[in-house]
Design brief:
Length: about 325
């Protein structure tokens, strides 16, 4: 059985739309919803909408936790533990998704049937431009200590996009055992997307080899490639002042540039299995998030607005 861990916090109509989208492309999957403690709607209202729309592929986790930025890993852990409580097969798998993902391409069911684990092996052996890796390596001492205990002794970590990543349930339960036994989430002085580092790093340390990269295309990697190439060039000019301010301005402009957002061209290219190559050099490692040939079936980020033009376009394809 395949389960999907999906934290949600706003706009029930969009949640229903996403569940219908997932049902079309992942026919046999069960979606486990974690409703944030800060959700903008009542759990009862979503339950009612699920019934009205005949959504039979979703279960609501009875536990609701704080999902403010940096705490999404807690929602996923809560979902994993809930899934473990209802699972009857140790070979069950869990896929992670976000509430602004959408699936676009047929064939995902067959693809998943032959895979056990999907995650990036984005190795960082020194500091780079991806700031979560820097925090993990330099400030999250308890986490780094646990990595050394399982055999990762060279002060390096492994990162992965969380959306579209998949792990066997039994592996995730072993990871959670370390996280909880060693209180790795108790340090409130550091805040970063731990789910993008804890899960792949521990899995890698356990000797798990991914069968493929995550199947969701995120526009952030193309932006990173362009922005970090600019940053590296800028940093080479030692005499230029106020580099941090310049980088903030440039990054903001790139984020607001529609060429760096999910658009019709990107969706159509994925449908044709034709995509621009993305190669990122950072942290002492050259990384390709979607090495060719690569199977991609979804995109991120789609605005959580039922009338968003890209959401409307993707819905029209189905």
């Amino acid at each position: 059985m395949i389960f999907v861990s999906l934290p949600v916090h706003e706009n029930p109509r969009v949640i229903i739309n996403q569940l219908k989208n997932f049902r079309q492309f992942m026919i046999d999957a069960i979606i486990v919803l974690h409703i944030s403690k800060q959700a903008s709607f009542l759990k009862e209202d979503l339950v009612s909408l699920l019934k009205i729309n005949n959504i039979d592929n979703a279960i609501i986790n009875p536990n609701s936790l704080d999902t403010s930025w940096g705490n999404i890993i807690k929602a996923h852990i809560s979902n994993i533990k809930f899934i473990q409580s209802i699972s009857i097969n140790p070979d069950d798998k869990i896929i992670f998704h976000a509430s602004n993902d959408m699936l676009i391409k047929p064939g995902l069911n067959n693809f998943l049937s032959t895979k056990l684990n999907l995650f990036h092996t984005r190795i960082y052996k020194c500091d780079g431009y991806w700031w979560p890796a820097n925090i993990a390596r330099n400030a999250d001492k308890s986490f780094m200590r646990q990595l050394s205990y399982i055999g990762l002794n060279d002060n390096f970590i492994v990162g992965s996009q969380i959306e579209g990543s998949m792990y066997k349930l039994e592996i995730l339960m072993e990871i959670i055992k370390i996280i909880e036994n060693k209180n790795l989430l108790d340090n409130i002085d550091i805040n970063y997307p731990r789910e993008e580092i804890y899960f792949p790093s521990f899995a890698y340390g356990f000797g798990v080899k991914p069968d493929h990269v995550p199947y969701v295309y995120s526009e952030i990697h193309y932006l990173e490639m362009k922005f970090w190439a600019f940053s590296k060039k800028l940093d080479s000019f030692w005499w230029i002042p106020k580099k941090k301010k310049i980088k903030r301005i440039v990054r903001k402009k790139l984020i607001n540039n529609k060429n760096f957002q999910i658009n019709k061209q990107i969706v159509d290219d994925i449908l044709k299995s034709k995509l621009k190559e993305i190669s990122i050099e950072d942290g002492g490692f050259v990384w390709q998030p979607y090495p060719q040939p690569c199977n991609l079936f979804g995109v991120k980020r789609i605005n959580r607005d039922i009338d968003d033009p890209m959401r409307v376009y993707i819905n029209s394809l189905n």
